[in-house]
Amino acid sequence: MKLYYSPGACSLSPHIALREAGLDFDLVKVDLKTKKTDAGDDYFAANPSGYVPCLQLDDGRTLTEGPSIVQYIADQAAGKKLAPLNGTFERYQLQQWLNFISTEIHKSFSPLFNPDASADSKATARKTLDARLATAAAQLSKTPYLLGESYSVADIYLFVTLGWAGYVGVDLAPWPALQHFSARVASRDAVQATLRAEGLIQA
C-alpha cells in the first residue's frame, strides 16, 4: 500500500492507523500547493481532487476520504480491534463519530486556516467549533475513548483534529477531558512513531 500525505494534515489519521495496524506501506509526501509529490509526479494522477489523504492499494485501486480509509485499514488488521466488526451496532457508532468529526469538527477548523476568510466567518466557525468540541468532551468525560473502553480509528481522527487547535489559537483548556484524551493518545508508541516520521516532533 501507498499513503499520499502532507505533514500534519488530516492524512496524519490514516498514517497513524497504518502504524497501529502494523501493516506494510510506503509514504509519498505531497506538496499541497504545487500538487506534486517529492519525486515530482503529478498528484492529480493519483487523486483528481488534489487533496490528501489518498491510499493506493497494491493493485492500483485508490481510496480517498479519511473516514473510509481508516475503516479499510482497520479491517485489514481485525485482530488489532481498531474498529468494531461490520454489521454490529458498535460499527455504526464508529461511523457516527467519524462522520461527526469529519463534518462538524474538521470542517469547522477549515475557515480558521484560511487566510482569506473574513473575521465574521472565522468567528462563526469558532462558535460552531466550541459547541462541537463540547459534544466530544461530554463523551470523553464519561469514557476514555469515543466508543467506551476501546481505542478506535475514530479516536485517531479526533486526536489529529485536536492537534490543530494550537495552530489557530483555539484553547482547549475549557475541556479538560479533551486535553487528557489527547495526552492519552499521544503517548501511544504508534502515534509517537508517526509524529516523528512526519517531522512533527523530533526523533
TrEMBL record:
Residues 87-203 form the GST C-terminal domain. Keywords: Transferase. PROSITE patterns: GST_CTER, GST_NTER. GO terms for molecular function: glutathione transferase activity. It is an enzyme of class 2 (transferase). SUPFAM superfamilies: GST C-terminal domain-like, Thioredoxin-like. Its EC number is 2.5.1.18. Residues 1-81 form the GST N-terminal domain. InterPro entries: Glutathione-S-Trfase_C-like, Glutathione-S-Trfase_C_sf, Glutathione_S-Trfase, Glutathione_S-Trfase_N, GST_C, Thioredoxin-like_sf. This is Glutathione transferase GstA. It comes from Zoogloea oleivorans. The gene is gstA.
